[in-house]
Structures are given as structure tokens and as C-alpha cells.
Amino acid sequence: MPGPLLEIRAARRSFTTPEGRDFAALDGIDLRVEDGEFVTLLGPSGCGKTTLLRAIAGFEQIDDGVIRLDGADIGPLPPHRRPVNTVFQSYALFPHMSVARNVGYALEVRGVARKSREAAVTEALAKVGLAQFGARRPAQLSGGQRQRVALARAIVAQPRLLLLDEPLSALDRNLRQQMQIELKDLQNRLGIAFVFVTHDQEEALTMSDRIVVMRAGRIEQAGPPREIFRAPKSRFVAEFIGETNLLPAVVRATVGGMAELSLEGGQVLHARADSLRPGAKVVAVLRPTDLAPAEQGLAGIVRRVIYLGADLHLRVEPEGGGGEIGVILRDAGRVPAQGERIVLGYDPARVHVMEAGA
Amino acid sequence: MTHRQRVQLFLLLTPVTVFLGVFFLIPLGTIAVYSLLTPGLYGGVEWSFYHWNYGRIFGWADGITEVFEPVYLHILLRSLGLAAATVAICLVLCYPVAFWVAGLAPRWRMLFLFLITLPFFASLIVRLYAWLLLLKPSGLLNTVLMGLGVITEPLDILYTPVAVILGMVYIFLPFMFLPLFASIDTLDRSLIEASGDLGARPVQTLLKVVLPMTVPGIVAGGVIVFIPAVGNFIVPDVLGGAKGLMTGNLIEQQFLSSRNWPFGSALAMVIMALVLGVLLVFSNRARRAGGRT
């Protein structure tokens, strides 16, 4: 079986801040990317995701560790000798060149003959839906069009791996959602592996085959979007990916794959979970969208009602105390009133339990 | 434009218009008129039309009172060549430094910009005489080189074109540096990264991205150095000796020693026309180079 396309082992990189302190941007990163895979590096600013991307591209050197591409150590290679291309956050289109020359640049500098260069440029522009725009200047294009030119320019030389540094962050919301889908389609058609950097969890969930959540230079959790969303390994991941309720609890008993948890206020929460010790301190992760009014469940008082059109957000104070619980109702047949008593039902299989302190 | 805006504009533009009119246009017009008048016997001018001033330079002298001397054209061309060499050397020296300074942290960059302008704080003449002391046969340069055993005989640099070019480059370096720096400083560094990322070797990045994008700075620096360099007479005077006569010295001599004001004026007009011609060609080329895809 062939090895992974990209393999990073124990990568470390530290910077010295202007105040003279050492700061580890990458603190022991292990990462594998398979051929054709769409991997997203997700995390807040300063978590090291951009540094990791720049280390793969060759703009940053790592102090320690190995970066292999197709089994070959590319660590010592300068950027222009790595078969990897980047879509920059600012697009970095050459303003003094036409769109066509921008797109053909990678072939031009490799000395590809004009004829085959033009054919490849036409094809790349067609792939991003800008076939008619070759003669224009970047300044004559809209933000979304520039974005596509940057994409076409990065794929024209058929890199082994495409790196994307928050490429959608400068676009407005509608265009961003449209580009997310187009980007994923393009990646499927090209079959090139993408490493995509973002701080936007929705982008990550929409497009990725695998999400790598980073925090303070380390990988917090890596896995398919559903796993990251449904089974976060830590409080940080749970809070970073979407709205969530984190309820501290103690395991009372486990019977046949079902655990009985005692919440802080004394109410009981059931969760489908194996291998929990009675008496262990845990945190129950409950998504606001997984709660709905029912006959049985968690009882509480509605403290606040926020109407958002399609959604209805509730803040419910559980009976017996404990922190407020957020609830998102998709289809509110009857809008609960403030101060009303409510019972929230849930599916125990959708309650995720993680260790306290994680 | 409202009446109020018009009044404001008038008030703002009047001082500079008056200043330029009095101290630039009138003297320029005077020189243009003088260049077509008869030289007075003891300096000054006689008010009658006289085209031999230009004839002496370009070759239609009458051969009796005014003689055609190709040496004037030679000196003009030599001045243009010297100015061009000064521009070229300043550019080559400044470009990498400007690039480096633009990449520094703000604190250090301020220090270096200050250092670049430091020579302006001392008198030009004093600085040129310092060069005289450096370059003379028993000067610092020769003493050090001979002490190190690099040379056995003192180098005969002073009063040669090499000395003049050294002095010119020294004087005009800051004038090249500042516009270059301003241009390079605004260059988006991610373009350089993008070029490398797409497979361009550093030399290709320089030729295809960095240089074309900093053409405005190169043109500005070139023009700002070239114009005063053509007419400069102090450097050739101090460091060039008798053989290093340049247009600036020639014009100075006509006004001060020879007291032939019309001929000096004609020389000044010719050099101005040449400089304008060179600049037109140059800026047209640059615009076309910048506008190419």
C-alpha cells in the first residue's frame, strides 16, 4: 500500500515576539493527508494553522520535525521547488499582468511553449467559469472573480497538493456559501488533495473530508466533520464547533450501554455511552438543536425567548439549578412564553459524554 | 464648483503661482531671450538678434568672430553620459538596500531612513573636499591600500572621470534611494511569495514581478537624479580637475570668467532641450513597459 501524500511528523516552529518571549506556533504537529483528500485546518487566530500551511508551502522553515511529500523530504526545498501551490488570502494576483498571464504564470516560468500554455490557461479558466475574462486585468474583476482567477492560477500546473489560506474570508456571506460548494465540486473533479485553512466552522463542516482542529500550536482533534461535531474530545472543540451546551455531571450508574448522569442541579440525564465508571466526573455535550419540548426529559423555566425567523432560540434555567441551557427550535408550533415551565426531551444517543477537565 | 470653493482654490494656488512665475518663468524667459542676443563687449548683452551663439555649438559659425568648436557638443554628450552613469550606479546600489530597509521593523527602518538623509546636514562643498582628502595620492584610500600591500604605487584616481563619478554617485544616492524606497515599500510581499510558490526562481521573480511593479520608483529616482546630474558643476570642479570639464562648468565659465552671457544662455537652453528629449523618450518607454501585459 502506498504511503500518504503528505506526512508531517513532530513539526515544531517557534517565534520570538517583539517583547522577546518565545512563542511556539507549531508545537509537535503530526499530520497525514491522503491523495485526493480535502483536509481543513480549523482553529482560532494564532493557533498555528497558517504557520503550518506556510511550512508546507515552504515560506516558513520548521525548527524540528519532518515534512514529506510522496515520501520525499521537502523540508530543505525552497517554495519554487515544491510541487505544491497556494491560494492566498489576499489572492496575490499580479496587478501588472492580464488574467490569462496570471493564470499561465506557473507554466511561463517553467518554460512551457506558448501554444500548450495557452491551451492550459483556457482550460483552467473554463474550470472556474471565467473563460471570457483572460484579457482583463485583475483590477477589473470583482472579489469573487479574483478568487476564481487565483484558483485557476494555482491549479494550472497540476500540483500534487493545493493549499488554501482562508480564501473565502474576503467574500460576502452569500458568495461564500456558493464558493464553498463550487470549491468542493472543483476538488472532486480535479482529484487534487486540498489543505484548507479557516477559522469558520461552517466552512470546515461543509467542505471537508477531514477536519483538523488546532489550538495553541497543537492538534486538538482530527476526524470527519460528523465526528468532530457529534463527538468532540474536549470542551475547546465542542465550543469551537457550533453552539453547544456543556453540562457538568457525575456518572451514577451504567446499564447495558446506557449511562445515568446526575447533573449539578440534581436532574438525571441519560446518555448512550460505554466504559464510564460510576462516580466519574464528566461533561455532557448537548447540541441546542437536539432538544425539543416533550413529555419527559429535563425540566426548566424559560428565561428568554429570541425569535430569529426560521429558528427560535430559548434560554432555559434547569430546575434545581445549574447553568442555563440553550435550545434552538426549528419548527415552533407554539412559542413558549417567558417564565413558563418547559420539559425538554432528547435522544440519549445524541448526548455525547466526555471526561471532565478535557 | 461653488463660489466659496473657487475662492478657496484661488487663495491656495496664488502663492505658488506667484512664486513660480517670478522666480522660475521670468529667469527662464530671460535666458531664452539672452541666448538670441549679441554678447556685449564687456559682458551683458546688446539688444540685437544674433544666432551665432547656437551656430558655435551646432556648426554654422561665421568662422571669423564666432568659430565652430565640436568640443561643446562633446562636452554636452559627456555630461549626458556622466549623468546616465550616475543614475545607473545609484540604481544598482540603492535597489537592494531599499528592498532590505523596507523589510525591517518600523523602529529600524526609521533609523536607516535617518542615516540616508544624514549627509544633507553637512555642507556639500565640505563633503566634496573630504573626498578630495580621501582620494589624493597621499590620502586615506591610498595609504590604507599601500599599507595593506594591495598596491605599491598610489592610485591616480583624483582628477579623473572615476573621481567625478564617485563624487556624483555619493551626492545623488539619497535622491535615488527615497523614491525607490517609497515604491518598494508599497510592494505587496505576498506577490513575491506567490511568484515563488508558482515555481519562479528568485531571478525570475525579480525580473517578472518585482522590477515591473517598482517601475514608478525607478523612473522617479532616475529623473530626480538625472536632471541635476547633467547640470552639476561642483563635483567636476572639485574632483575632476581641468580635464573633467562638464556642461555645468562650461556654462558657469561663460557667465563668470568669459562674461559671454548670450553664449552661456545658449548652452543652457541646449542642455535643457537635450534633457527634456531624453526624459520624454525615457518616460514613454517606461510607460509602455509598465503597460505591457
TrEMBL record, chain A:
One of the record's GO molecular function terms: ABC-type polyamine transporter activity
Single biological process term from Gene Ontology: putrescine transport
E.C. no: 7.6.2.11
Residue span, ABC transporter domain: 8-241
GO cellular component terms, A-Z: ATP-binding cassette (ABC) transporter complex
Keywords: ATP-binding, Cell membrane, Membrane, Nucleotide-binding, Translocase, Transport
InterPro entries linked: AAA+_ATPase, ABC_SmlMolc_Importer, ABC_transporter-like_ATP-bd, ABC_transporter-like_CS, Mo/tungstate-bd_C_term_dom, NA-bd_OB-fold, P-loop_NTPase, PotA-like
Tagged with keyword DNA-binding: no
Enzyme class: translocase
Pfam families: ABC_tran (PF00005), TOBE_2 (PF08402)
Domain of life: Bacteria
Reaction(s) catalysed by this chain's protein: ATP + H2O + polyamine-[polyamine-binding protein]Side 1 = ADP + phosphate + polyamineSide 2 + [polyamine-binding protein]Side 1
Function per UniProt: Part of the ABC transporter complex PotABCD involved in spermidine/putrescine import. Responsible for energy coupling to the transport system.
Family from the record: Belongs to the ABC transporter superfamily. Spermidine/putrescine importer (TC 3.A.1.11.1) family.
Subunit structure of this chain's protein: The complex is composed of two ATP-binding proteins (PotA), two transmembrane proteins (PotB and PotC) and a solute-binding protein (PotD).
Name of the protein this chain belongs to: Spermidine/putrescine import ATP-binding protein PotA
Automatic annotation (TrEMBL), chain B:
Any one cellular-component term (Gene Ontology): plasma membrane
Coiled coil ranges: none
The ABC transmembrane type-1 domain, residue ranges: 76-282
GO BP terms, alphabetized: transmembrane transport
Transmembrane stretches, start-end: 12-37, 80-104, 111-132, 157-184, 205-230, 263-282
Subcellular location: Cell membrane
Membrane topology, as annotated: Multi-pass membrane protein
Keyword Lipid metabolism in annotation: no
Keywords, in A-Z order: Cell membrane, Membrane, Transmembrane, Transmembrane helix, Transport
Entry's family note: Belongs to the binding-protein-dependent transport system permease family. CysTW subfamily.
Name of the protein described by the UniProt record: ABC transporter permease
